[in-house]
Amino acid sequence: MKFTLSVDDQIDTLISLLELSFKKPNVTYKILKPINMQFYTFLQSLGLLIITKESPDSDDNLTLTFNDLFWDIFLSLKTNTSSFIMIETNFKLYAYTNSDYEISIIKLFSEIQLELPNLVKAMITEESVNNAFEKGVTSSQIIHFLTSSFYKGELPVTISNQIKIWEAKRNRIQTHFGYLYSNFLNLIDFQKVHKFCLEKNCIIDKDIEKRVLIIKPEFNEIVKKYVETILKQP
């Protein structure tokens, strides 16, 4: 099996490895987010993973199980790898490593400021962490990596707490598509449209003082025709 890695594939593969590092051997896990099925299939061809389908006629509901050999590989890597990361409370990160794998993981959630043969200086910011979240990385995975690689002592609580806060903040933000109605010529017209939209239960958001309404997309044509009717009235 030929397994090639573009830049995006490398990122997806690292995310997949992070996810698998949390799993236990000989336990079946449901693949909720198959970020990199090509990589999973590659591991299966090596005899490290078993991918099964709950339904033979569908690619949904996939599960995977990895054996003791895969676990031993992870365990040996953890045993032979010394702590190499230092983080200041101002979120500056210093990694004493020349491992492409470790540097690639660091790049997932931080902004690289300086890269030398044996040293990487980076900054953990809300934007850099959000970039990792967009790729499917969780705060628990970032904290687990930092904790297991931290040099002397424990990872500062302020760092782990802030990463969790950024994730919680991101999860609170929801995006909705809608149509904006504003610039009503008078209050009476706005009140009529507002009442009409309330009856249709099609308002996403509103600002009564500024005479602004945001309408659900599927109701746009109905509201638009109603507004045109009002404008035609003497």
TrEMBL record:
Keywords, A to Z? DNA damage, DNA repair, Nucleus, Transcription, Transcription regulation
Belongs to which family? Belongs to the TFB2 family.
Entry function = Component of the general transcription and DNA repair factor IIH (TFIIH) core complex, which is involved in general and transcription-coupled nucleotide excision repair (NER) of damaged DNA and, when complexed to TFIIK, in RNA transcription by RNA polymerase II. In NER, TFIIH acts by opening DNA around the lesion to allow the excision of the damaged oligonucleotide and its replacement by a new DNA fragment. In transcription, TFIIH has an essential role in transcription initiation.
Q: Where is the Transcription factor Tfb2 C-terminal domain?
A: 161-227
Q: Any keyword Transcription?
A: yes
Q: Note the PANTHER family from the entry.
A: GENERAL TRANSCRIPTION FACTOR IIH SUBUNIT 4, TFIIH, POLYPEPTIDE 4
Compartment(s) where it occurs, according to its Swiss-Prot or TrEMBL record: Nucleus
GO molecular function annotation: ATPase activator activity; double-stranded DNA binding
Provide the Gene Ontology terms for cellular component.
Answer: transcription factor TFIIH core complex; transcription factor TFIIH holo complex
Q: Which organism is it from?
A: Nosema bombycis (strain CQ1 / CVCC 102059)
Cite the InterPro entries for this sequence.
Tfb2_C (IPR040662), TFIIH_p52/Tfb2 (IPR004598)
Can you say what this protein is called? RNA polymerase II transcription factor B subunit 2
- GO biological processes: nucleotide-excision repair
Chain segments annotated as transmembrane: none
Q: What is its main location?
A: nucleus
